[in-house]
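Troubleshooting: if your tokenizer reports a length mismatch, compare your output against this known-good record of 290 residues.
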Amino acid sequence: MVHNGIEYAIMQSISEAYEILRKGLNMEDEAMYRVFEQWSQGRLHSYLLEITRDIFAFKEKGSDHLLLNDIKDEAKAKGTGKWTSQAAMDLSLPIPVIDVAVSMRDLSKYKDLRSQASRLYTGAKEPKYSGTDADYTDHLEQALYFAMISAYAQGMHLLYSANEEFNYGLKPQTIAKVWRGGCIIRSEFLKHIYAAYEKNPELKHLFLNEDIRHILTEILPGVRRVISDAVRHGIAVPAFSAALSYFDNFRNEQMPANLIQAQRDYFGSHTYELKGKEGSFHTHWEDPQL
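Known-good structure output:
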């Protein structure tokens, strides 16, 4: 089930790279094939990248265009991604890249509504990205790699937490080895996951591994550029954005959740905890203090 949730997230991330290539860079199909071909030979090497490359080369007999361009933009699902999200919510564990991948498949099914909205809301004033395609595809490769790493990290965190809660006896390094051996989410990056858990079987989160920290730090500038450009040009990149927001709050020692807890106490007397003090507290917020 977690395997399939990661699968959803990686597929959504690849589709967002595709969206930027065709709408941001205005690439032709053959050029996109070359990009995915190049990526599939590097650190993004994976089964899902390989089949994506092949899809960009497939034409039906007698056709002058890709079969891909005739396929409706409505993605189906068997429910395994949803089950992953449900399991994570039951454990109060965030997996936003997987969650948003499930949601985007659901949104794709509302074709009539999307068609109506596309006529009501105009596109961005700058449809074409600035700079050379070669330079920008390097940034885009970084964004896709970042989202892929985040998908794996969130999935492995879910497995870790479920193992702690239900004492399944899971061994994350063995899971990574099995996945690398042959499955839909097999990829070059799984060797980093295996190495991280082989070094520390009790590792709570992949983002805390030093080697992975170096990878994320190196690609962050490209990730931020791709996401900010997409927002400016009106191109939806929900998985990329979810991956970055998750990362930025994961490394945020002081989140703004204290305000949320104060709000909860104000309208519902849900209490709050204080720094350096034991116990729960409640305030009558409507009493004048100034």
